[in-house]
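Fill in residues.
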C-alpha cells in the first residue's frame, strides 16, 4: 500500500477517466466552548462561517472549494433504480475524487454509462451484502492510499458539500479520535428529521439533534457515513456474517470499544429512505421492509450477544426495541404469516449462531 494510485482490477469497468487525486485542503477549526443543549452528549459545537453563506448553511468548518480532498465515495447497490442511482452519482461526483459503485446484482444486465457517469463500476460475483461490499470498496481504497471514504445506500441523496462538511468534522478537537461521522438525515418520504440513538449508561436513548454540533451516537448508519482509513485499519473490516442489518452497529461498537468516537454532524444534510414504506405509530414512523428483513433483524441482534465489544445492557435495551418493532410489524404490516415464519427462523438461527447470506434463500 502507499500513496500511488493503483489501476482498477481487471474485472472492474471504468466508464470515464479518473480524476487526479489532490491533497487534503487546509481545514479551519471553528469549535467553541459553548454549553451543550440539554439532553444530548456533545463532542463539539461548530460555529458556521458567516463570511461564506453556502458554507454557513452546512454549519461546519469548510474545505476550500477549489481543492479536491483525498476522499472516495462508495455506493452499495442491489437491483438499483437507474434514475435514482444516476442522481446519486451526479451529486457525489463533484464532491469526491472517485465514486465506486459496488454492484451486488450478479446475473443482471450491466449498468450503463448513463447511470454510472464518471463512477467506477465494481460488479460482485455474488450478493455480498452491505458488509462484503464495503470491505471490497475499502480494499480498493486502501490500495490507492485513500484517507477517507463515505458510503451510501442506493436510496440516499446527499446535500451539496456533504463530503467536505463531514471531512471537516475530523479536524474538530475532541477527547477521543473520530472513527466515523454521519449527517443529520431527513426521511425522503415524510420530510421528518432523524432522531439520534445515543449510548447513555450502556443503554440507547433517542435524543433530538441539536444544531451545529458533533453529537456522540452509539452508531452511524451506513448511508452517509464517512470513515477514516486509519480507523478502518485499527478497527478491522465489517462483519460479513451479519450481511446487512446491524453491520453499522457492530462496526461502530468495535470502534467505540477501541477508544474511538462515532458521531453525527448535525450541520451536514442528507435525505434517506428506509424500508418500502412508513407506518405512523404512536407519534413515530415504523419502517416496513420485506419479511426477510425481519429475519435478519432478529437473527443479527441475537448474534451480537456473542460479541464481547457490545455492552450487555445496551443489547438488552436494543432487544426491547427489536421485539417491540417486530410485534408492531406482525400487527400492522402485510404478509403476516410469511413474516412470522421468517421471524421464527431468525430466532432459531440467531440462537444457534448461524449467520451469513445463505439462509436467506432457504
Amino acid at each position: 500500500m502507499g500513496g500511488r494510485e493503483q489501476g482498477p482490477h481487471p474485472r472492474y469497468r471504468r466508464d470515464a477517466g479518473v480524476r487526479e487525486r489532490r491533497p487534503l485542503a487546509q481545514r479551519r477549526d471553528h469549535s467553541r466552548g459553548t454549553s451543550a443543549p440539554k439532553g444530548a452528549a456533545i463532542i463539539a459545537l461548530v460555529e458556521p462561517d458567516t463570511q461564506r453563506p453556502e458554507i454557513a448553511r452546512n454549519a461546519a468548518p469548510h474545505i476550500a472549494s477549489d481543492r479536491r480532498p483525498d476522499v472516495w465515495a462508495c455506493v452499495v447497490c442491489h437491483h438499483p433504480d437507474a434514475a435514482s442511482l444516476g442522481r446519486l452519482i451526479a451529486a457525489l461526483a463533484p464532491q469526491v475524487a472517485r465514486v465506486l459503485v459496488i454492484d451486488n446484482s450478479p446475473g443482471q444486465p450491466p449498468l450503463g454509462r448513463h447511470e454510472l457517469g464518471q463512477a467506477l463500476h465494481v460488479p460482485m460475483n455474488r450478493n455480498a451484502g452491505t458488509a462484503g461490499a464495503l470491505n471490497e470498496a475499502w480494499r480498493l481504497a486502501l490500495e490507492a492510499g485513500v484517507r477517507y471514504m463515505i458510503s451510501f445506500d442506493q436510496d440516499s441523496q446527499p446535500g451539496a458539500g456533504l463530503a467536505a462538511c463531514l471531512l471537516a468534522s475530523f479536524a474538530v478537537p475532541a477527547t477521543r479520535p473520530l472513527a466515523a461521522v454521519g449527517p443529520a438525515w431527513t426521511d425522503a418520504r415524510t420530510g421528518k428529521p432523524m432522531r439520534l440513538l445515543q449510548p447513555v449508561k450502556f443503554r440507547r436513548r433517542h435524543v433530538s439533534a441539536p444544531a451545529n454540533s458533533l453529537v456522540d451516537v452509539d452508531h452511524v448508519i451506513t448511508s452517509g457515513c464517512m470513515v477514516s482509513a486509519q480507523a478502518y485499519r485499527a478497527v478491522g473490516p465489517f462483519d460479513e456474517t451479519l450481511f446487512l442489518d446491524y453491520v453499522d452497529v457492530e462496526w461502530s461498537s468495535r470502534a467505540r470499544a477501541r477508544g474511538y468516537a462515532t458521531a453525527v454532524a448535525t450541520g451536514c444534510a442528507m435525505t434517506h429512505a428506509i424500508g418500502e414504506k412508513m407506518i405512523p405509530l404512536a407519534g413515530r414512523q415504523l419502517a416496513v421492509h420485506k419479511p426477510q428483513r425481519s429475519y435478519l433483524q432478529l437473527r443479527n441482534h441475537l448474534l451480537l450477544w456473542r460479541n464481547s465489544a457490545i455492552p450487555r445492557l445496551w443489547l438488552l435495551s436494543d432487544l426491547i426495541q427489536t421485539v417491540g418493532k417486530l410485534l408492531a410489524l406482525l400487527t400492522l404490516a402485510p404478509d403476516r404469516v410469511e413474516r412470522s415464519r421468517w421471524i421464527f427462523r431468525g430466532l432459531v438461527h440467531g440462537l444457534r449462531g448461524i449467520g451469513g447470506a445463505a439462509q436467506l434463500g432457504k
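The radius of gyration is 20 Å.
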